[in-house]
Amino acid sequence: MNKAATYQYLKAHGVEFEVNEHKAVFNMGELSAVNLAYPEWDAKNLFLRDDKKRHYYLVSVKGDKRVDLKAFRKQQGLRPLSFASLHDLLTIMRLTPGSVTPLGLLNDADCKVHFYLDTEFLGNVIGVHPNDNTATVWLSADALIRIIKAHGNDVDIVDLNG
């Protein structure tokens, strides 16, 4: 699902959203130079796997937050974690580096990826890429949770203090 298809999907599912088009960004540092509508609600997204390469996870937190992966895995009762490979990113979520987003879960045909969203987003807007790193889509976190659950991926809301 490319950027245009992502917008169509959101519209078809009754999700209200705003878009900021911008130059391609590949990390949170580059994004800080972009003029965003709600910069305090932009999400940082970590695509992770366990040490056996059997389970995959997407963790979304506010852009300025750090995630202690050891503490997170212990809190969630998971095996040791590391970042998933570029091959896994492309194969499972059909994304390229710099465009990791919860909306990429809509490309996860087998619903292999478990989504973890930080509690800070609940009741607020969240900014994520539309499967392309040349824009940021702003939608309610509740709507994001709803469409990901409806797609079939597991979703957990967690407190990721860090």
Provide a descriptive summary of the structure in words:
This protein has 162 residues and is of the alpha/beta class. The chain has a single domain (18-158), classed as YbaK/aminoacyl-tRNA synthetase-associated domain (YbaK protein). It has five helices and eight strands. Strand 6 and strand 7 (135-140) form a beta hairpin. The longest helix has 11 residues, at 141-151. It is globular and about 35 Å long.
Strand content: 25-35%
CATH superfamily: YbaK/aminoacyl-tRNA synthetase-associated domain
Give the helix proportion (percent range): 25-40%
- The helix-strand sequence is HEHEEHEHEEEHE
CATH architecture: Alpha-Beta Complex
Total number of domains: 1
Low-confidence stretches: none
Stated plainly, the CATH topology is called YbaK protein
Task: Draw up the topology in text.
Blueprint: H1 3-12, E1 18-21, H2 28-31, E2 43-50, E3 56-62, H3 69-76, E4 81-83, H4 86-93, E5 113-118, E6 125-128, E7 135-140, H5 141-151, E8 155-158
Parallel strand pairs: 3-5, 5-8
Antiparallel strand pairs: 1-7, 2-3, 2-4, 6-7
